[in-house]
């Protein structure tokens, strides 16, 4: 597309102005853009980053989750997928599996990360609204009993007593239905 002003050079700057609801399109070459003062706007916009200092990308987001201290990854780095050859170290850096088999190969290595990200290693999912209340109470009981066992094992008896009382309260609700 040619410059809308000089009609000689290739237009590389394309602007849309909205003035009182009327949209005006301007197509300019670099020379005409500089002459009309658009070059200062362009230089300001070239350094504009809507995310600021964040490096926003799935690799950065998930890669940072894998970079935190958990198992020693240098030991795991030698383990390769038998199908595609991707190492766990490569998987952890890119947060992308090389193939579907990587999930089977690296299952044990991935569990601590999945636990930290999601809070558990099993998908629990939603349940039907009709059976929801009782099922929700049963799941809550199961979770509280696990927490109670963990508290007793850690000798946190005050916490265990609070959990025990919550369990008794929920059991009364379940028995009342």
From TrEMBL:
Superkingdom, natural source: Bacteria
The UVR domain, residue ranges: 138-173
GO term, biological process aspect, one: stress response to copper ion
Pfam families hit by this protein: UVR
GO function terms (MF aspect): cadmium ion binding; cobalt ion binding; copper ion binding; zinc ion binding
InterPro entries noted in UniProt: UVR_dom, UVR_dom_sf, YacH
Protein name as it appears in the record: UvrB/UvrC protein
Source organism of the structure: [Clostridium] cellulosi
